[in-house]
Specification:
alpha/beta; TIM Barrel; two-stranded antiparallel sheet; 8 helices; about 35% helix; globular; LamB/YcsF/PxpA-like; ATP-binding; 5-oxoprolinase (ATP-hydrolyzing) activity; 5-oxoprolinase subunit A
C-alpha cells in the first residue's frame, strides 16, 4: 500500500505542516506547485528531501488561488486550466530533476479535486495537460470520478486513492468538508479504518452502511493537528497488519 500526503504547502514566511517529519513516514509526496500553495524555495526543499529519502514526488496541482488555498471552485475556461496545469507540472518537474528525481504522478488539489469528480470540461482539461506533458504519467483519482474515466479513455495510467480521515457517502464520494463529521478526528478510528481498507475489509459510510474500497494509495492529511503522529500510527499499524508499504508510481 502507498501512503500519500500533501506537502510543500507553505508560502514565503508562512509554513503549514511538518514536511520533513512527514517525508520520513509517507511513500509518496503530493507537492504543491505554487498556484494554491507553495513557492520555488519550498518546492526545491521538499523535492531535495523526498529524493534523498526515496519518496515518490507527485504534482499537487490546483486552481490559481493562493488566498483561498485552492479550496474555492473557480469556473476557469478549460483551455486556461490546461495551460495552468501544464505550468505547474513544468515547474515541479524542474525541481524534481535538479534533486535527481522526477515527477512520478499527478493529483489535483482541493476544489479542483472535487470539481473533476463530476465536471466533464475541467476533468478533460486536466487530462489534456497531463497527456501533453507526459502520457506515461499516472493520475491519482477518486474512484468513480469523471477524471478517472476521462484519464482511462485518454490512455493515461490511473490509480485510485482512499482517505484516512474523511467520511464517505454511500456512493463512494467524499462528504463535503462543510458538513458535520466530514473530517474524522478520532485517531483510533482513523487508524482502524486504514487497516481495514488496506486489508480489503469494508468501512462504515456516513449513513451507517458498509463501503468496500480498493485503493492503490491511502491519503493522510498533513495540515491537521497531530498529523505527524497520526501518520506514524497509520504506518505502524499497516506494518503490524502485514501490509507492505511502497509507492504506487513506478520509479
Amino acid at each position: 500500500m502507498d501512503l500519500n500526503c500533501d506537502l510543500g504547502e507553505g508560502f514565503g514566511r508562512w509554513t503549514l505542516g511538518d514536511d520533513d517529519a512527514l517525508l520520513a513516514v509517507v511513500t509518496s509526496a503530493n507537492v504543491a506547485c505554487g498556484f494554491h500553495a507553495g513557492d520555488a524555495a519550498t518546492m526545491r526543499r521538499v523535492c531535495d528531501r523526498a529524493a534523498a529519502l526515496g519518496v515518490a514526488i507527485g504534482a499537487q496541482v490546483g486552481y490559481r488561488d493562493l488566498p483561498g488555498f485552492g479550496r474555492r471552485f473557480i469556473d476557469v475556461e478549460p483551455e486556461v486550466l490546461t495551460q495552468d496545469v501544464l505550468y505547474q507540472l513544468g515547474a515541479l518537474q524542474a525541481f524534481a530533476r535538479v534533486a535527481g528525481s522526477r515527477v512520478r504522478y499527478v493529483k489535483p488539489h482541493g476544489a479542483l479535486y472535487n470539481a473533476v469528480v463530476r465536471h466533464e470540461a475541467q476533468a478533460a482539461a486536466v487530462v489534456r495537460a497531463v497527456r501533453e506533458h507526459d502520457p506515461a504519467l499516472p493520475l491519482l483519482c477518486l474512484p468513480g470520478s469523471v477524471l478517472l474515466r476521462r484519464a482511462a479513455e485518454a490512455g493515461l495510467p490511473i490509480a485510485v486513492e482512499a482517505f484516512a480521515d474523511r467520511a464517505y457517502a454511500p456512493d463512494g464520494t467524499l462528504v463535503p468538508r462543510s458538513r458535520p463529521g466530514a473530517v474524522l478526528t478520532d485517531a483510533d478510528e482513523v487508524v482502524d479504518r486504514c487497516v481495514a481498507i488496506a486489508t480489503g475489509q469494508p468501512v462504515p459510510d456516513a449513513e451507517g452502511g458498509l463501503l468496500h474500497l480498493s485503493p492503490d494509495s491511502l491519503c493522510v492529511h498533513g495540515d491537521t493537528p497531530g498529523a505527524v503522529e497520526l501518520a506514524r500510527r497509520v504506518r505502524a499499524a499497516l506494518t503490524d497488519a502485514g501490509v507492505p508499504l511502497a509507492a504506487f508510481a513506478p520509479p
